[in-house]
Amino acid sequence: MAADCDAALEYRMYRDEGDLPGIMALISADLSEPYSIFTYRYFIHQWPELSFVVLDAGIIIGTIVCKMDEHKTGPMRGYVAMLAVHNSQRKRGIGKWLVRRATQAMRGAGCDEVVLETEVTNAGAIALYESLGFVRDKRLLRYYLNGNDAFRLKIWFDPLPPHQQPPEGEAHAML
Ligand SMILES: CC(C)(COP(=O)(O)OP(=O)(O)OC[C@H]1O[C@@H](n2cnc3c(N)ncnc32)[C@H](O)[C@@H]1OP(=O)(O)O)[C@@H](O)C(=O)NCCC(=O)NCCS
Fold this sequence. Notes:
175 residues; alpha+beta; Aminopeptidase; 7-stranded mixed sheet; 4 helices; 7 strands; 29% strand; globular; disordered C terminus; binds coenzyme A; protein-N-terminal amino-acid acetyltransferase activity; Acyl_CoA_acyltransferase; N-acetyltransferase domain-containing protein; NAA30-like; GNAT_dom
């Protein structure tokens, strides 16, 4: 367990469909975009090793859902699709652990960069991502259904040295 983890909580990768109701409840309580169960399954079934949860007494209180694919300009691009921490559990480092862990997993799986969008008014999320090295790459006008603009935030990686490359198919071993 990393030094910045709370020993009372469980930190782990997505396990199976049993995690889905808790993930959906958290995300739908906080994000402005409505997602169907098919959207969750699109991400989680294809990239289960890129989704993580934090639990308190078996209840999911934080989650991040990501994917990766080759961008049209060439690089392998990771993407943070969803991130939420229960509002009673914020400001104790859970969001930062989730973003750091998912970013490590995407890097370990071969991503050259990671991107995401966040509402320009979401000061908490922007501060969190910027504290981890993400920068503002673009402003996307009226990106959200509610009419708000988004910032595209982005982080670029240097290539991993050979001794840190995970064994093939074991990106999740990069703890
Ligand atoms: C954004 C969110 C995930 C942050 O989760 P969290 O567990 O509270 O974040 P952390 O405690 O790990 O905070 C890490 C850093 O982020 C920043 N931060 C987090 N919340 C903040 C806030 N409300 N205001 C300002 N900075 C904030 C701080 O820099 C903090 O570092 P610090 O501990 O040194 O002060 C959480 O507020 C949330 O779920 N919001 C609703 C959903 C959402 O907006 N998701 C992001 C969509 S892109």
